[in-house]
Amino acid sequence: MSRELGGAGAATARLVEMSADVRAALALDPAGGLVAVSGADRRRARRLADLAYELVLAADSASAGPIEQIEAQTVAGAVFVVRDARYTLACVVCRLALPALVLYDLHQSLLALEDPA
């Protein structure tokens, strides 16, 4: 079930539905506020949002400007983030997910939010 405001909820739900590898997906506003989440309870959703925003802030502080795409791999899985001026989309995936496919799906979802027609 997805908690949502507008098309962001549909985007997070679609990310989880499109791939068995995606465990949870979320959308944040530019200030790190949780806009939508799929596949997580309220407490877990807030924790995922906080961690995703911290990852974005850390990546930005380590670079010369805003980072538009992040991939963080661990032994157990990975986190992928894409963003534009309006939204940050992030998803948590299992270890065997194909990064190129996950990033493609995230970018397509972000584009769909910009042009919902």
CATH 4th-level superfamily: Dynein light chain 2a, cytoplasmic
Helix content: 40-55%
Named CATH topology:
Beta-Lactamase
Give the class-level CATH name.
Alpha Beta
Tell me the strand order in the biggest sheet.
Answer: 1-3-2-6-5-4
| Main beta sheet | 6 strands, antiparallel
Number of domains: 1
DSSP strand (E) fraction? 25-35%
Integer average pLDDT: 88
Shape: globular
| Helix-strand string | EHEEHEEEH
* Count of helical stretches: 3
Total E-strand runs: 6
For the termini, the CA-CA separation is: 23 Å
Architecture (CATH level 2) name: 2-Layer Sandwich
Secondary-structure content class: alpha+beta
Unreliable residue stretches: 1-5
Write down the Rg.
13 Å
Please give a handful of descriptors for the protein shown.
3 helices, 117 residues, globular, 6-stranded antiparallel β-sheet, alpha+beta, Beta-Lactamase, disordered N terminus
Can you describe what's shown?
- With 117 residues, this protein is of the alpha+beta class.
- The chain has one domain (2-114): Dynein light chain 2a, cytoplasmic (Beta-Lactamase).
- Helices cover 41% and strands 28% of the residues.
- It contains three helices and six strands, in the order E-H-E-E-H-E-E-E-H.
- A six-stranded antiparallel β-sheet has the order 1-3-2-6-5-4, sandwiched between helices.
- A hairpin with a 3-residue loop joins strand 4 (69-73) and strand 5.
- Helix 1 packs antiparallel against helix 3 (99-114).
- It is globular, with a radius of gyration of 13 Å.
- 34% of the residues are buried.
- The model is unreliable at 1-5 (pLDDT under 50).
